[in-house]
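Quick one: structure for this chain?
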Amino acid sequence: MDERTVKRLTLAACILGSGIALLDSTVVSVALPSIQRDLGGGLAAQQWVANAYLLTLGSLILIGGSLGDLFGQRRIFAIGVGGFGVASVLCAAAPSIEALIAARALQGVAGALLVPSGLAVIVGVFPESERSSAIGSWTAWSGIATVIGPLVGGELLDTVSWRWIFIINVPFVLACLALIVIAVPSVRAPGARRRLDIAGAVLCALGLAGPVYALIEQPRLGWGSPGVLAPLLAGLALLGLFVARERRTRDPMLPLGLFARRNFSVGNAETLVMYGGLAVLFFFLTLFLQQVAGYTPLQSGLATLPVTIVMFLLSRRFGMLADRYGPRLFMGAGPLIAAAGLLLLQRAGASVSYLGVLLPALLVFSLGLSMTVAPLTAAVLAGADSGDAGIASAVNNAVARIAGLLATAALGVAVSASFASALDSHLAGVQLSGAGHSAVAVAKHLSLGVPDTASLNGEEAQRIQAAAQAASVSAFHLAMGVAAVMLIAGGMAGAIGIRNPARAAVRAQTCEGGALVGASADLAAELAPAGAGPAARAGPAGPSARAPLGPGPSQGPSA
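Got it. Here's what it folds into:
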């Protein structure tokens, strides 16, 4: 088979592998109520059906990247895809909620193998001059699963059983494995074979598990809970030991020299703030549309669909432009344009005009995001040797996931405080009944939203509703303002810190009039952060930090 066919089929295999993980994540969120009705377990069990996957994936992803570099990306990718299929069957057959949570944790283990290795396979097969456009295509088509997931899940839940949301993974897994066997080449990393850093792997897994667990549980338990502080501090201490070990060992799992490379370090710093802001946007926008503006879950998902469409149409093209001219311009300008879109959301009120307010803001935001994601991913990977592609991808993925968890958890506290303060201010001097005080207390636990005032008299109910709406709008504006500042910081980091490869400048000079030539139309470009996902939950301690599966480096900089 010729080289062009190998590349196309390899890209298709990587798209299928990443798409399986994304499809499963969005479908599971839609199915949680049905799972609870069938298997029981309550709210905490529902949360852990989703979070068990996030915990094992986040804890083991650096190990998965390292294993790909040591034993071959093709092999680890195939094991990850096959393992995900086996775990999906176990999920479908789970006889109890505990068995389902355990099977979801196994899916996370498999995801930690397939997520970084899928991107590393692309790095190994595509030359650097074609890499950004290939990454754009990969993340775009993988991201279609973000939109398809809730629709497929809703249909399966209506017609058969929640167990089919896991069974549906099996044919895609088999197709992906067939493509890996037929087309994906085995790319051998240059240099001498390294030894497996077992002690480093254990320290890394436990060190990452602590903060990830703490961030997942913080909305339920609060920052002051020993159940949050103990794993957080223990994890940070273990990560310190991990770094100390990696400095001394001969064959480190994570070569710290990667961070001495300018584009790798700056790209990951931009990933941290960029994807933190991204997570804030989609979490609080979904919450605001449903709990304040009165959108249904389906309407709120469809409202953000233009982001997916714009990124799908444009990201490959921006990836090709970054291949030609270098990533610096796009990594600098893209986040600034995306931030302008978020600032346009400052015009949103309790009644949101979709065509007049929401759609223009999301179109501007998605244009900036499309400019950024593929160049950012390619710049990070170009900052590492091909032999470190797996661990470089895993680092970028882990940074994005931790950024999303941290940003939504930390800003959730600020948004809740802002909402409560604004609500008290709007109700200052208003005489409330005992039932009215109870309704206000309930509203403060919503973070954003209007309480049920059906039991109150007409005038009191109207005042509380109006105050809650005004406080929600104010708190939402705060969240969007902070997210915009984060994106601006990311753009400044890219503009100042990124260095274009010398090849980009030469290619720009030799290109005929600087025109873009040879665009392949068969695959096109980028991933939607969380557009069609279900509403996230909010609780007394702030919103639940559900990782947006959308372009977190796993779905942008990584799968």
